[in-house]
Amino acid sequence: MATWFTEKQTENFGITAKVKRSLHKERTDFQDLEMLETEEWGNMLVLDDMVMTTEKDEFVYHEMLAHVPLFTHPSPKKVLVVGGGDGGVIREVLKHESVEKAVLVEIDGKVIEYSKQYLPAISGALEDPRVDVQVDDGFMHIAKSKREYDVIMVDSTEPVGPAVSLFSKGFYEGIAKALKEDGILVAQTDNPWFKSELVRQVHADVKETFPITKVYTANIPTYPSGLWTFTMGSKIYHPQRIPVERFTNIKTKYYTSELHNACFALPKFVKEIIE
C-alpha cells in the first residue's frame, strides 16, 4: 500500500507526495524534523509538517534568495544567512568571488546535521573554509552585530515556532543596524495566495526601515501555491539599475541576468497587496 505525505497548506488545501520511505524522524529542541525519500522530489526536508526543501526543486529558492541581492551589491565581501541550515543558500553565496566570509546562523543544529547526511548536494558547501557555521539564535546574533555585513539573507521557515521573531519590524530594524552603510537585506516572505497579509505587513515594515524596498517572485512547486515572494531592503543600491558588466558568469539552473530584472515585474494582484 502506497505511503503519502501531505502538507496541509491551508484548512482547505494541501500538497501531497508519494513517499518511498522515512529516512529519519525526531523531535528536536525546536521542532519536528523528518527526512523523507519521495518518488517525485527525491529527498525532502520537512519541519513541523511543512516542506522546507527537496533535491529536485531546491535550486530555485536558493538561487533567488542569494543571487538577486549579491548581484545588486557591487562588492559583497561579508554575508550573513539567518536560518538555512540545509546549506543551499550558502552554496550559492560562495559562487560569488568577492565573498570573503559567509556566516550561517541556524538555531537548530539538527537541521545542519541531517542535511549533511541526507542532502549532501545542498549542504556540501558548509565545509568550505570561507564559511562560519554557528548554531545560535539568529535574532540575538543580529542584535549583537553592528555595521558588520554587506548582505543579510533571512532563510527562515514560515512564521511559526522559532521563526516568529524573524518576521517582526524590530528584527528588520536590527538588520539595518547590522548592515554596513550600503548594505542589503533579503528575506523570504511566503506566498501571496494564502499569506497576503504577511506579504503586505513585511513589505510595510521593511519599507519603513530601508530607503529602497522591492518585492520579487519565483516559482517553487513544492512551496504553498508555487508562487513565492522575497522582500529586499536596500540602503543605496537599486536592484533594477545594475550595470550589465556586473553580471558575472556563474553556474545556475534558474537565475539569469534577464530574470533578475524580470522577477520584479509583479502580477497585478500582488502589486495591489503591497500597495
TrEMBL record:
<dbReference type="InterPro" id="IPR030374">
    <property type="entry name" value="PABS"/>
</dbReference>
<keyword id="KW-0808">Transferase</keyword>
<protein>
    <recommendedName>
        <fullName>Polyamine aminopropyltransferase</fullName>
        <ecNumber>2.5.1.16</ecNumber>
    </recommendedName>
</protein>
<comment type="function">
    <text>Catalyzes the irreversible transfer of a propylamine group from the amino donor S-adenosylmethioninamine (decarboxy-AdoMet) to putrescine (1,4-diaminobutane) to yield spermidine.</text>
</comment>
<dbReference type="InterPro" id="IPR029063">
    <property type="entry name" value="SAM-dependent_MTases_sf"/>
</dbReference>
<dbReference type="InterPro" id="IPR035246">
    <property type="entry name" value="Spermidine_synt_N"/>
</dbReference>
<feature type="binding site">
    <location>
        <begin position="137"/>
        <end position="138"/>
    </location>
    <ligand>
        <name>S-methyl-5'-thioadenosine</name>
    </ligand>
</feature>
<feature type="binding site">
    <location>
        <position position="162"/>
    </location>
    <ligand>
        <name>S-methyl-5'-thioadenosine</name>
    </ligand>
</feature>
<feature type="binding site">
    <location>
        <begin position="155"/>
        <end position="158"/>
    </location>
    <ligand>
        <name>spermidine</name>
    </ligand>
</feature>
<comment type="pathway">
    <text>Amine and polyamine biosynthesis; spermidine biosynthesis; spermidine from putrescine: step 1/1.</text>
</comment>
<feature type="active site" description="Proton acceptor">
    <location>
        <position position="155"/>
    </location>
</feature>
<feature type="binding site">
    <location>
        <position position="106"/>
    </location>
    <ligand>
        <name>S-methyl-5'-thioadenosine</name>
    </ligand>
</feature>
<dbReference type="InterPro" id="IPR030373">
    <property type="entry name" value="PABS_CS"/>
</dbReference>
<feature type="binding site">
    <location>
        <position position="31"/>
    </location>
    <ligand>
        <name>S-methyl-5'-thioadenosine</name>
    </ligand>
</feature>
<comment type="subunit">
    <text>Homodimer or homotetramer.</text>
</comment>
<dbReference type="InterPro" id="IPR001045">
    <property type="entry name" value="Spermi_synthase"/>
</dbReference>
<dbReference type="InterPro" id="IPR037163">
    <property type="entry name" value="Spermidine_synt_N_sf"/>
</dbReference>
<feature type="binding site">
    <location>
        <position position="86"/>
    </location>
    <ligand>
        <name>spermidine</name>
    </ligand>
</feature>
<dbReference type="Pfam" id="PF01564">
    <property type="entry name" value="Spermine_synth"/>
</dbReference>
<comment type="similarity">
    <text>Belongs to the spermidine/spermine synthase family.</text>
</comment>
<dbReference type="Pfam" id="PF17284">
    <property type="entry name" value="Spermine_synt_N"/>
</dbReference>
<feature type="binding site">
    <location>
        <position position="62"/>
    </location>
    <ligand>
        <name>spermidine</name>
    </ligand>
</feature>
<dbReference type="GO" id="GO:0004766">
    <property type="term" value="F:spermidine synthase activity"/>
</dbReference>
<keyword id="KW-0745">Spermidine biosynthesis</keyword>
<feature type="domain" description="PABS">
    <location>
        <begin position="2"/>
        <end position="235"/>
    </location>
</feature>
<keyword id="KW-0620">Polyamine biosynthesis</keyword>
